[in-house]
Amino acid sequence: MAEPAEPAPAAEAGPARRTDHSPWNWLLLIPIVLPLVTPLYNRDAPRLWGFPAFYWIQLSFIVVGVVTTTVVYQMTKRR
Predict the structure, then answer these.
(1) Do the Cβ atoms of 58 and 35 come closer than 8 Å?
(2) pTM given for the model
(3) What is the mean pLDDT of the chain?
(4) Chain-centroid distance, C-alpha 29
């Protein structure tokens, strides 16, 4: 009679399960929530190179998104 096989060690079972529960991921909420705060940029002044604040502040949100995504990636990537 055959005995039941023992469970395989974790290394043979496949790649380790990745967990994405780093607190750095909370920074990704900034570029999501910031454009939703419309009183922050719903105005004409100050102008930057002739552009109303409504436009250049929204363009600056792109930079904020890139910076926060880069920071989160650098802090959470595997070494």
Answers:
(1) yes
(2) 0.68
(3) 85
(4) 7
